[in-house]
Amino acid sequence: MNENLTQIFNLLTQWYENNKRDLPFRRTKDPYKILVSEIMSHQTQITTLVPYYERFIQRYPSAEALAESSLDEVLSYWEGLGYYNRAKNLQNCAKTVAASGFPRSYEEILKLPGVGPYTAGAISSICFGEKKASVDGNTLRVLTRVLALDLDIAKEKTKKVIASRIEENMTEDPGTLNQAILDLASAVCLPKNPKCSLCPVRDQCLSFNKGLTEVIPVKSKKQKKVIENNEALIIEKDGRLLFKKRQDESLLNKTYGFPVLKRDLEDGKAVKDLAKDLNLSLPVYLGSCKHQFSHIQWVTDVYLSKANDNSKLDGFVSEASVVPTAFKRMIEVYKKSPHK
After folding, report:
1. Is the sign of the CA dihedral 259, 264, 267, 273 positive or negative?
2. Does the active-site annotation cover 38?
3. Residue 313, C-beta contacts closer than 8 angstroms, at least 6 positions apart
4. pLDDT tens digits for 142-182?
5. 294 Ramachandran zone, left/alpha/beta (phi>0; psi -120 to 50)
6. I need a labelling partner for 177 at 20 to 30 A (CA). Which of 71, 144, 219, 286 fits?
7. Distance between CA atoms of 45 and 160, rounded to whole angstroms?
8. What are the residue ranges spanned by the domains of the chain?
9. Selecting from 3.90.79.10, 3.40.50.300, 3.40.50.620, 3.90.480.10, what CATH number does the domain 226-336 have?
């Protein structure tokens, strides 16, 4: 099987040279720029990522430039990509790199804040030629199909098995191989209805030969998403909305938004208590909205209170550098309400 996999990898890299996507981060081996592209690519489509990447690199061409910037500004350049912890981790990485230089091995790259095996494998293979696999869902799909493995790709141990198989048969240019697998997954080896007629390794693909391309990969069902029922209080003063930076929050920490409270058994009780503490007007119900995070859905009742000169507004500001989509949905409820 190893001989077959070596042949497959050689055919894949040959195919890649003629069919690779022209992406701005494919034109560099600067580990900082590859880091930015890899962190951005988590949870983001490549077509969406590219303009954000180009704008981000233009503003922060080096780790030093990113390290010296304020977090608020960094988040403003990230706005629209979501999953803001990625931006915070990226800046923390930049601070480490600016102070100590970019690590040059997989194990050391793995120690950077927020960097996992996939990102460390991508950077170490592309930038430093280390024979490490970068295994994500795309890689798992291609390799389990090619080898006709009925391993559950939702399990962590499957990642380890696939990474080991790749690294045992790695080509002389590991970075190119990792990218070739991703491009094959993007253009040919699709999750449904793969384009086997275009595949450069169709003849070597065991799933194709056995008629299993619609059966493999095997993936167990995801756990049900958690629903959080909340109440949000929009505060208005002199016709302007007030925002506050979220501190020590599990979601959207360090971004600006409105107070979000767990819904009490009595509707509106949580925001009424808060309004009383802040010396605001009695909250008025405006409507409801939903926002889906990766694993949690917010179902939020939106209320409005008016502030006055005696209100306790420490930490509230009338302009916010970054307002995440979850709060923009609440603003839409506010705009549509006759009570505003």
Report:
1. negative
2. yes
3. 235, 237, 242, 278, 307
4. 999 999 999 999 999 999 999 999 999 999 999 999 999 99
5. alpha
6. 219
7. 25
8. 2-210, 226-336
9. 3.90.79.10
- Choose, from 3, 17, 38, 54, the residue flagged as catalytic: 38
**Are the beta carbons of 242 and 307 closer than 8 angstroms?**
yes
Average the pLDDT over 249-254 and give the result: 83
CB of 132 within 8 A of CB of 160?
A: no
Could you count the other beta carbons within 10 Å of the beta carbon of residue 128? 18
How does pLDDT run across 173-214, given as a tens digit for each residue? Answer: 999 999 999 999 999 999 999 999 999 999 999 999 999 999
Q: What is the dihedral of CA 189, 191, 193, 194, to 10 degrees?
A: 0
Domains 2-210 and 226-336 share a fold: no
d(CA 37, CA 53): 7
Give the chain's count of helices (H) and strands (E): 14, 7
- How far apart are alpha carbons 283 and 259 in whole angstroms? 13
